[in-house]
Amino acid sequence: MNLKKIKYKNNSWYDNCTRGSDTMNCFFNALFMFINNPEVRDLNYRIALGLLENGHELDYLTINELAERCFVSTSSLNRFFRIYGYKKYMIFKALFSSHMRIRYVQIQNRINEKDYGMLHKVFSSILKSEDYERLIDMSWVKEVCEMIHDSKRVILIGSDEMASYFSRMQTDFYVMGKLVIKDSIYKTNFFTPEKDDCVILLSMEGRIVDLNSWLLDKMKENNPKMITIGHYDYLQDAYGLTIPQGLDEVFENMILDYYIQKITYYYAEKYL
C-alpha cells in the first residue's frame, strides 16, 4: 500500500471514513494488546502478530494465504474477525486498508498544524541553557530515526507507566511500515530482541538495568541497536536521550512527549 500518494485531506472520502473508524480503532488496540507484554503466546497472539506483520500486504492476500502466514486455520481467522464484528474477510480487508489511509492522513495533518514555538518558550524558561540547546538540536532526532529506519522492529522496554506514553507512536509507526512492540520488565517470559531490532529502554533512573541484570543480558544477547531514555546515559554502547533531573513530573512528561513527537514526525517527513 503506497500511503505516500494519499491526498485526502478535507474531502468527502476522509470525512465519511473517519466517522466509521471507531470500530477499527478498537480492533487495532486489541491487536496491540495481544502482542504487548503477552503472558501466553496463544492462538490470539499468533493471529494478532500475523495480521500486523502482513497488514501492509493485506490487499493482495487471500484468507488462505493470510491463515498460512499466521500459522492458523481459516476458520480460526474467521472466528477472530467475527468477535470484532467483521463477518466477511473482504469487508475486513477494505476497512483495514481504509483505516491505515485515515491514520496516515491524520499524521500528515498533525505535522502540518504543529507549532513548537510555545513549547520551546516553556522549555527555555525551565531548563538550563545547555539542556535546552541539546533538546532542540535536531541531530539526535536524525540519529534515532536512522536507527529505527535501519531496524526491522522497534522494541519498547520499561515500566508500564512510561511505556504507556508510546501508545500513539506504536500505531503511527505501524502505519508507516514499522512494527513497534511494547514489552514489560515485569514479565518472566520476556523475549530476546534480534540483531536487526532497535530496543528503546525507558527508565528515568536506570534502575531497570541495576535491578534486572538478567534482563540486560537478554536484551544485549543478539547485539540489537539500543536507545535509552532517562535522566542520564545509564547504558554503555546505547544512544541516550536525557530528561534533565530536578523537574516536576509534568515537565518531565512534556519532554518525553516532545521526544516521541519529534521522532514520529521527522520519521514521517524523512522516510515516507
Describe the structure in your own words:
With 272 residues, this protein is α/β, with parallel strands linked by helices. The N terminus is likely disordered. The termini are close together. Helices cover 57% and strands 10% of the residues. Strands 2-1-3-4-5 form a 5-stranded parallel sheet. Helix 2 packs across helix 3 and helix 9 crosses helix 14. It contains 14 helices and 5 strands. The chain folds into 2 domains: 103 residues, no CATH class; 156 residues, Glucose-6-phosphate isomerase like protein, domain 1 (Rossmann fold).
CATH superfamily of the largest domain: Glucose-6-phosphate isomerase like protein, domain 1
Radius of gyration: 20 Å
**Which architecture of the largest domain would the CATH scheme give at its second level?**
3-Layer(aba) Sandwich
Distance between the terminal alpha carbons, to the nearest Å?
Answer: 12 Å
**Sequence stretches where pLDDT stays below 50 over 5 or more residues:** 2-20
Describe the structure concisely for a colleague.
With 272 residues, the protein is α/β, with parallel strands linked by helices. Helices cover 57% and strands 10% of the residues. A 5-stranded parallel β-sheet has the order 2-1-3-4-5.
Describe this protein with a few key phrases:
272 residues, alpha/beta, Rossmann fold, 2 domains, 14 helices, 10% strand, disordered N terminus
Topology:
Layout: H1 12-19, H2 22-35, H3 43-54, H4 63-70, H5 74-83, H6 89-113, H7 117-126, H8 129-136, H9 139-149, E1 153-158, H10 160-163, H11 167-175, E2 179-184, E3 197-202, H12 207-211, H13 213-220, E4 225-230, E5 239-242, H14 249-271
Parallel strand pairs: 1-2, 1-3, 3-4, 4-5
Helix pairs in contact: 2-3, 3-4, 9-14
